[in-house]
Structure formats: C-alpha cells, structure tokens
Amino acid sequence: MALIGMKQIAQIGKGSVAAVALVLGMALPQAALSQAGGVSPKAEQLLKRSTDFLACQQQFSLDTESSIEVVLASGQKIQFDHTAKVSVERPNKLRAERTGDLVDQVFYYDGETLTLHNPDGGLYATIAAPDTIEAMLDFAREKLDIVAPAGDLLYKNAYDILMQDVTSGFVVGKGVVDGVHCDHLAFRAPHVDWQVWIDAGDRPLVRKLVITTRDKLNAPQFTVVTKNWNLEPKFAADTFSFVLPKCPQKFEFLPKGGDGAKTQ
C-alpha cells in the first residue's frame, strides 16, 4: 500500500502537489513549522524529568522493539528488526535477552563479569567487567564494541549523555506510542538528529527513540520502542547469573578493532 501511494503522489500534477504539500503542512504542529535555533527550555525540562525519574529507579524491567537501517553501496536501505527483554538492578546488575534478524543472544552482567551467550550452539564469551552499570556500559562499548539495548537510557547521567553536543531542540507536540500519550521532542547535534517520545503521565518513561545519522549515505535510522515497563519487578536469584549450557563452546571476546575470533 505504501509503494502504491508513493507512485500515485508521484503522478499528481504540479498544482496538485502544491496542494498536497499545503495539506501536509497544515497537519504538522506549529512548533515544527516555526522551529528556531537553540534548545527550548521546555524540551530540556521534559527530557531531564524523564532521565531523572529513571535514574531514581533501583530496579526495573522492560521490553524493546528496535529496527536498524543498513545502507547498501547502491544507496538502497535494508531494515533489520530485533526485540529485547531488559532487566536492571542498580548499581551493578543487568540482563538483556535479544532476538531478531541478526542476533539471538543473552547479555549478562552480575557486577563482576560480562557474559554474552548464544543459546543456539551453546556459544559464550565472558570477561571481567567494572563494578557499576555505567562503567560496564562504557567498557563494553569502548573496548569490545558492544552496545546494550537502549543503553544510553540506563546511565544515571543519561541527560548529560543525550544532550552532549546538542545544538537545537524543541517540543514537536503531543503523540501516541503504543496507546500511550506522549510528549514528542526533537533534537539536533552535529552528526545526528534524534527524537524522543516521553510518557506524558505520572511516570515520564521514554516510549520511543529515533536516531537519524545525517553524515551517512541516505541518513539511516535506528528506532527503538519500549513497552511493558515494570518498576517493581521480582527478580529470581539467578536472573543475572550465567549458567554454563550443555556442551558449551567458549569464545574469547574480540577487542574493538580486532580481526578475528578466538575459541577455547
């Protein structure tokens, strides 16, 4: 249906195209039409309220649905989808079960070690890790080139990380994500644009995040939608502990920039 609609629009005469553009413009929130430079204090306030709220939660769980676009040499975009179940217990416990087009993997962090386990085939790799979630996330990204699902939102200083190098930001208006009424914000940094939808209710949780990489061919996007937030989960004692599978195959983590994998 989308392709048919695009073809129909392409066949409209010039006068009709102008009329369509006018109608689309009228449907946009006024803030989007009159965006000025700088960061709106209201946008900052809404984002800070959201990140501070999550930073105060000592334990929580959520599900994510994400998609990432890959641009081929021809310029054509290919999209890959993933889901994840994320469990967090501050200051030093994290588990993420990820499945999708490119990965089927469980990410364990117990305050001492970081382990990645591919259930299919019993493959796993484990390494000593720093003793807080924030330090572990930095270590995983900088040393191993591994990014946890919705990782930026898990930092206690998520606001500072998200706003680093931001040059403009504004409140687009109201939106609805998965049936939840949200405040829709948009920000711009030197190389990326990003949008965030924040629950407009008493629990200002991030419901959707879209990142557009402007300095890459055809500006690929990463989108993540969050749902099933639980701020009072009851975690089992072994939730964050990795248990060796039957017939395990151990791999060594490949340092960022390495050119091969190592097994034991």
Describe this protein's structure.
By secondary structure, this protein is α+β, with helices and mostly antiparallel strands. Helix content is 23%, strand content 40%. It contains 6 helices and 14 strands. A 14-stranded mixed sheet has the order 1-8-9-10-11-12-2-3-4-5-6-7-13-14. A hairpin with a 4-residue loop joins strand 6 (113-118) and strand 7 (123-128). The N and C termini lie far apart (51 Å). The relative contact order is 0.17. The model is unreliable at 1-26 and 259-264 (pLDDT under 50).
Task: Summarize the biggest pleated sheet.
Answer: 14 strands, mixed
State the share of residues found in helices, binned by percent. 10-25%
Shape: globular
Helix tally equals: 6
- Describe the strand arrangement of the main beta sheet, using strand numbers: 1-8-9-10-11-12-2-3-4-5-6-7-13-14
Q: What structural class results from the helix and strand content?
A: alpha+beta
Distance between the termini: 51 Å
pLDDT below 50 for ≥5 consecutive residues: which ranges? Answer: 1-26, 259-264
**Strand-residue fraction?**
35-45%
- Count of individual beta strands: 14
Order of H and E elements? HHHEHEEEEEEHHEEEEEEE
Would you tell me the overall average pLDDT? Answer: 86
Radius of gyration: 21 Å
